[in-house]
Amino acid sequence: MNMIGLSSPKIWFVCGSQHLYGPGPLQEVAENARKIAAGLHAEGGFPLEIVAKPIVTTPDEIARLCIEANADEDCAGLILWMHTFSPSKMWIRGLSQLQKPFLHLHTQFDRELPWETIDMDYMNLNQSAHGDREAGFIHTRLRLGRKVVVGHWSDPEVHARIDAWIRAARAWHDWQGARFCRFGDNMRQVAVTEGDKVSAEMTFGFAVNGYGIGDLAAKMNAVSDADVAALAAEYERLYAVVADLKKGGARHESLLYNARQELGLRAFLEEGGFKGYTDTFEDLHGLTQLPGMATQRLMADGYGFGGEGDWKTSALVRAMKVMGEGMSGATSFMEDYTYHLPAGGEVVLGSHMLEICPTIAEGQPSVEIHALGIGGKDDPVRLVFDAKLGSALNATLVDLGNRFRLLVNEVESVVHPALPKLPVARAVWACKPDFKTACQAWILAGGAHHTGYSYDVTTEMLEDFATIAGIELAVIDADTEIRAFKQDLRNNEVYYHFARGIRA
């Protein structure tokens, strides 16, 4: 199944040179650049196509290319490489206008030098060691955020690093003009799910707007009984549905109601062109229960989601879904819920009331119905499962008032005892570097209790994403030490306060 609303833009491969070398060498430069772009596309296994653009050799050519990139909705970013020496003052006007992300690939056409035949003609033609340093200086002088990847273009490690950036660039491209829907407001009195939606649109390019839950109820009521029955039958084919919810069971009407919720939500989201949404159990007028399995299945199709009106997490989950496209697909909305604290064996039990994506499930989920415990509505239907084991990460996007911070903790999903009295989807993980350090660092950084949880997305992807967005990144991993982490946060307070002036 293709992810909803996901386009497949291109990555432009741009090679810089100059006219100092004459037409013959420039033809060779152009041909070598085409071969590298084609080789990357053929061998890298990237989620987006890399296309070679004509080589640029003058300030006007560079400026025109950057303006064209800005205007082309099918361009998600640029890979820049200097085959020869490209005097970097030529790039100032173009790069000063460029609004698309770029990666600087520091490579050369030949992997090995022809030691016995190398002469000055070869040296002049193959001097990216020279040209890329010139380019790097002007990128730094202009204070441009970018990724630098070093190594021969055929190297699998180089491919892996480019792949991480392309996934981040695709997620950024997906955010531009994206729409996120809030059914109602956020949960009352909660701080971390609030935020400045104007600042978010200025910073990230997506829009968040509110819609009445009654509008959703109207969409649900418009769904035909036949369509509802067909979707409920599909549930019985796909999942282990408990007997009470099956056709003919005592509570089958609740399964039909979930199907109506899902079809109504899909119709509303598709009609509005939304890529994610939020709801809250405190605003359900016109609905008899909070959407549970409906939301879980919509997330599996690529919609972002945040509980209790948390639009920042909804947008982040969507971005992480896009980054992981073509991989296992295992990314979900998540919440740090409670702890198991034996000395030296501390773990986190992550879950939510209902809305955990089945893409992270180990095995076939079961479809069950239980009381929610809050909200005062009917018992909701939900998919119940344990998350798969393995390396994962939690990421959260928080609004600090003067800026946004992306916070990441690398974790390991671990085996845990059965949970017969906890009928929700859940994951249990050990934090890196250890429980006490990770939780202390998370709280010091102002991390939210809602996260995007993924087995696909890597810290490198999120680092690239933060660089593209121009926002702060704080990472908690195996190397984190509290004293240094606290100092990094203090340094970031100063840097991001003055960053706009520094870039001038």
List the main descriptive attributes of the protein structure presented here:
alpha/beta, six-stranded antiparallel barrel, five-stranded parallel sheet, 504 residues, single chain, 19 strands, elongated
Describe the structure.
The protein has 504 residues and is an alpha/beta fold. Helix content is 39%, strand content 21%. The chain has helices at residues 23-43, 59-71, 92-97, 120-125, 128-141, 156-175, 197-204, 213-221, 225-238, 252-272, 293-300, 311-323, 435-444, 459-469, 482-503; strands at 10-16, 49-52, 75-82, 102-106, 147-150, 179-183, 207-211, 240-241, 276-278, 304-306, 331-340, 347-351, 366-369, 381-384, 390-399, 404-413, 426-431, 450-454, 472-476. It has a six-stranded antiparallel beta barrel with strand order 11-12-17-16-15-18. Strands 2-1-3-4-5 form a five-stranded parallel β-sheet, sandwiched between helices. A four-stranded parallel β-sheet has the order 7-6-9-10, sandwiched between helices. Strand 6 (179-183), helix 7 and strand 7 form a beta-alpha-beta unit. Helix 6 (156-175) packs antiparallel against helix 12, helix 6 packs across helix 14 (459-469) and helix 8 crosses helix 10 (252-272). The model has no long low-confidence stretch (mean pLDDT 96).
